[in-house]
Design goal:
Elements lengths: L2 H10 L7 E9 L7 E10 L4 E8 L23 H6 L7 H9 L3 E5 L2 H14 L7 E5 H8 L8 H7 L11 H19 L3 H7 L3 E5 L2 E4 L7 H9 L14 E4 L1 H4 L5 H11 L3 E2 L8 E4 L5 H4 L1 H11 L5 E4 H7 L4 H5 L10
Parallel strand pairs: 1-4, 4-5, 8-9, 8-10, 10-11
Antiparallel strand pairs: 1-2, 2-3, 5-6, 6-7
Helix pairs in contact: 1-8, 5-7
Length: 343
């Protein structure tokens, strides 16, 4: 059982009631480089009855960079820059946020929440504050797993699918937290399942400790995975069995193994190789050995087409990859949650 899921099960798995949900959202002044400018939250009971909410306006003590961001739309906040400048800095609200997120008998929830948790970690480090320590659940992953969605759906589009109204083009943390609450409630009601059961049964949780973030639900097709690929470097140099070789893998390997793929890439890099998601550019392509893989996996088909076009690509199975990495199947299946504090 994943560590973060186990933590939840040990706390809430004995039939305790009085459980509350804390939905939160964060806005940053410069795209999340450690400049939180608002922290919004909505607290409910386990039946989604609202108990408390607020939108905490924070002086980011940094510049505002809200437009012209690479491949992302400009941001329009609910407050003016002067209103942010007049507010106290993050240090003034640290204890309040800490008490809210670290309280017992609750589930903390956000949409694409690892990003917001990362922003908190960065600001804690920035101001030399003690790290936060709490477990969280991700509504984006909840939606993806409940409805078997391949992509990561944004909060706006997910809300549209359930006819949930929310402000358009205006980012107010409290309202986004409330929209997350309505989304989670709609998902639970549509399937007749409680959020606490989803947290115990699905891979939608993570935790933060010592400024590091550990998730059970990492999605390799997220920008996060690409960022990892662009920054990964050897940590524990091993026998150079992939020296100078670029490795790629079928989606059947990369997607279901959301925790393992990070470790496999790291091991490949430690063994002298690199990893790409563009299969036509690889030297070694890893498959499960399924005869239908090339027909149903676009990446596998692309690798075969590239080889027929003259690219020298060696096809190996996952078992062969593990063998070259000197990793047993048992060890592969039990790899721990990856540390994603590098985000």
């Amino acid at each position: 059982m994943e560590k973060s899921v186990l933590v939840f099960f040990l706390v809430f798995g004995k039939g305790e009631r009085n459980l509350r949900y804390v939905f939160f959202d964060i806005e940053c002044a410069d795209g999340g480089k450690g400049s939180v400018c608002s922290f919004g939250y909505v607290v409910t009971d386990e039946h989604f009855h609202e108990l408390e909410s607020d939108d905490i306006v924070i002086n980011p003590e940094s510049g505002f960079h809200l437009s012209g961001r690479f491949k992302r739309p400009s941001i329009l906040f609910a407050y003016t820059e002067s209103e942010f400048r007049k507010a106290p800095p993050f240090t003034a609200f640290y204890e309040r946020i800490k008490m809210l997120l670290e309280a017992k008998d609750q589930i903390v929830v956000g949409h694409s929440v690892q990003d917001d948790v990362n922003f908190l970690c960065k600001d804690c480090a920035r101001y030399a504050l003690p790290p936060l320590k709490f477990t969280f659940a991700d509504s984006q992953s909840l939606y993806a797993q409940v409805y078997e969605s391949a992509g990561q759906i944004g909060l706006d589009r997910a809300c549209e699918e359930f006819s949930i109204e929310k402000p358009v083009d205006v980012h107010k943390s409290e309202e986004d937290a409330r929209a997350t609450m309505h989304l989670v409630r709609a998902i639970c009601e549509s399937k007749g399942t409680s959020l606490s059961d989803y947290v115990k049964d699905l891979r939608i949780t993570g935790e933060t400790e010592n400024f590091k973030i550990f998730c059970s639900y990492i999605h390799p097709n997220r920008t996060m995975f690409q960022t990892f690929l662009e920054n990964v470097h050897p940590k524990n140099p091993a026998k150079q069995v992939f020296a100078g070789k670029c490795v790629s893998a079928s989606m059947a390997i990369e997607q279901p193994k959301q925790a393992q793929i990070y470790h496999l890439v790291q091991m490949i890099v430690d063994a002298g190789g690199s990893y790409t998601r563009v299969s036509s550019q690889c030297d070694i392509f890893v498959t499960l050995g399924n005869a239908n893989e090339g027909r149903i996996c676009k990446r596998t088909k692309t690798a075969h087409d590239a080889k027929r076009g003259g690219r020298h690509i060696e096809f190996i199975t996952l078992d062969e990859l593990l063998k070259r990495l000197n990793l047993s199947k048992e060890s592969y299946q039990s790899l721990p949650l990856p540390d994603i504090h590098w985000m």
